């Protein structure tokens, strides 16, 4: 996939299936070398289209699209927690500026909402991506999944502006 302009828009309920497919493809394609197979299965099993209902209702959900390819990235900002709770790019779109475009869009919207500092719990494979864009390690963390599965992550923060 060539580097193309990356239109970003707010996601709608009609995007739920595309969001789930994209999210799963990203995890399976990009996180596999960093997490055990059991953890990946537990993680992706949660990602049904309905899992996005609450985020669509309560958070800012953005989708990145590329002409001819459809949805190639998604990002979720929880403005109340000042946290980027998700940022995933389709494996075929990695290195094409999609993740950076989504992150910049999230940061712009957060700043416009008066948020001064953003946090995220980055997957192990995404740590370098965030660090290259000014996010600082705060320390180790984890995401807790049903069934007692814990996904290690890296707590990171960035002061905006």
What's the topology here?
Blueprint: E1 8-10, H1 16-31, H2 37-45, H3 53-58, E2 60-66, E3 70-78, E4 83-89, H4 98-112, E5 117-123, H5 127-131, E6 136-144, E7 150-159
Parallel strand pairs: 4-5
Antiparallel strand pairs: 1-2, 2-3, 3-4, 5-7, 6-7
The main β sheet shows up as: 7 strands, mixed
Number of H- or I-type helical stretches? 5
H/E series? EHHHEEEHEHEE
CATH superfamily: Gcn5-related N-acetyltransferase (GNAT)
Query: Order of strands in the sheet with the most strands?
Result: 1-2-3-4-5-7-6
In terms of DSSP E residues, the strand content is 25-35%
Rounded mean pLDDT score: 92
Protein structure class: alpha+beta
Principal-axis shape equals globular
Detail the poorly predicted runs. none
Question: How many domains, as an integer?
Answer: 1
CATH architecture: 3-Layer(aba) Sandwich
What is the CATH third-level topology name? Aminopeptidase
Query: How much helix is in the residues?
Result: 25-40%
Number of strands: 7
**Structural Rg:** 15 Å
Taking the alpha carbons of the first and last residues, their distance comes to 32 Å
CATH first level: which class?
Alpha Beta
Domain N-acetyltransferase: 6-161
Protein name: GNAT family acetyltransferase
GO molecular function: acyltransferase activity, transferring groups other than amino-acyl groups
Keywords: Acyltransferase, Transferase
């Amino acid at each position: 996939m060539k580097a193309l302009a990356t239109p970003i828009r707010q996601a709608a309920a009609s995007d739920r299936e595309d969001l789930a497919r994209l999210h799963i493809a990203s995890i399976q394609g990009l996180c596999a070398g960093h997490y055990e197979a059991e953890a990946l299965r537990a993680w992706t099993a949660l990602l049904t289209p309905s899992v996005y209902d609450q985020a669509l209702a309560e958070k800012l959900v953005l989708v990145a699209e590329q002409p001819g390819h459809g949805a190639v990235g998604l990002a979720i900002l929880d403005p109340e927690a000042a946290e980027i709770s998700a940022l995933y790019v389709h494996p075929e779109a990695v290195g094409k500026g999609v993740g950076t475009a989504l992150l910049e869009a999230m940061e712009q919207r957060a700043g416009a909402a008066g948020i001064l500092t953003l946090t995220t719990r980055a997957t192990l494979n995404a740590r370098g991506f965030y660090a290259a864009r000014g996010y600082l390690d705060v320390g180790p963390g984890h995401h807790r999944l049903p069934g007692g599965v814990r996904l290690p992550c890296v707590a990171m923060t960035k002061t905006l502006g």
